[in-house]
Specification:
Layout lengths: L1 H4 L5 H15 L1 H36 L1 H17 L4 H12 L3 H11 L5 H11 L4 H12 L6 H19 L28 H16 L3 H36 L1 H16 L6 H9 L1 H10 L5 H14 L1 H11 L7 H26 L4
Helix pairs in contact: 3-11, 4-5, 4-10, 5-6, 6-7, 7-9, 7-17, 8-14, 9-15, 9-17, 11-16, 12-13, 13-14, 13-15, 14-15, 15-17
Length: 361
Amino acid sequence: MVRFLFRPAVIPAWSAALIVLLLALFPAEALEASVKGLSIWWQVLFPALFPFFVISELLLGFGIVHFFGTLLDPFMRPLFRLPGIGGFVVTMGYASGYPVGARLTAQLWEQGLINRAEGERLVAITTTSDPIFLIGAVSVGFFHNAALAPLLAAAHYGGALVIGLLMRFHDRNAPATAAIPAGTSGGPPGMRRSSRFARAVYAMHNARLLDGRPVGTLLQDSIQAALRLMIVVGGLVVFFSCIMALLTKTGAIGAMAGGVETILSVLGIPPALAEAVVNGLFEVTLGAKSAGAAAGSGLLHQAAIAAFVLSWAGLSVHAQVVSLLSRTDLRYRPFLLARLAHGLLAVLLVYALWPSLGPAS
């Protein structure tokens, strides 16, 4: 009986029951945390992400993805074992931050432009912070030190590219998708002998014709799809904000911080940064803010923990990515391992790059 109660399939049910119990015991704290999470979604995430979600939908409808796919194919395949359209997703993901890369990856999979292995590689590379958050919120807002931005950017984005190079060995026996997206392999006589740019333009034009939706319809569909996605993102942010408040109230967060303090002490990192690590495990904003507020820990160590939090991304972002990939056959485990590796690699890069990119003391 005891063995049955702790089967993996039963644990989520017990977890849900425990959350309901905590909500009944601490309703005021849960309400306050939910309002806080809703405020973060409405004031920060919605204006930051919604335009990118709409634009990404429009670019797919206009065939821009096929343009980049044909143009960048010779570069993406040798480096990352990805089709050229991966270059478009990397650019959009780095510019707009999580979870836009996962959203575009799911869309490409649904259109048959990438397979499972390529999708898992792509979402591992493109789950990054956006530059505005890294520079404006973390470096300036939390650390009050704009000179820290080049170091954090090099560790975060450089680490993501290294993860991309390592992920090329992921599922190495999986077949690659066709170099030219489906539906664009034909064309006028002599097109295959034309320049790659000309073939990219034709691929974009052909993809637009295959889509066929008028511009007004495409814009309406893009806004509706972006709104649906933003509601999911908002719900997850509110949920995890509430969960963290309940765990803090019960002392679970404090117990986790105690264990993290021991690990940090062994690694030679000030134990005062344990709270930042624990907060960052759940939510990236809270973790980065706690790292910046850990005065007396040393700016180098604070920056290293902030880089880990940005690269790990927090379970809140993990849940957003999982929800976006739920309609695909992409697995969570490769993404989880990539995020953990990215976080540890970012920490190492901060320590390695500090002498050259660290702020002048």
